[in-house]
Amino acid sequence: MENTSTASDTPASTPPSAPGPIRPAVPPRRTAADWVWLVVVAAAVIAFGAFAGVLGPLLAIACDSCQDGIRGPLRFDGVFAAVWGLVPLVTLGTVAGIFLPRGGARVGAYGLGALALLLTVMLILGRITA
Under a CB-based contact definition with an 8 Å cutoff, are residues 100 and 37 in contact? Predict the structure, then answer.
């Protein structure tokens, strides 16, 4: 004999199971447009990281009223430590985070904000250590 029971054959006393939150097991696949957008964001992060790493210290130690165009005693350890240490790490970490499955443009925005903050800190340290 075959088992031909249907849903109406189940006892009426059993309550239906409560639906839980629907979570996809795998994140949705990225389209070509998503990849192009992420590459544009990554290029913007790399460009701003290069700007902050190369021109940031030069802007920090520049002086309009100084004779040679550079601030007095060279006590810029904090500026150069921030440049040579943090800016490349933040830039590479942001670019890597952009391409992770749960990363994306949000990680790029946080990375750009962190690079802008580092650039601001470099400029402030350059003005203070004159």
Answer: no
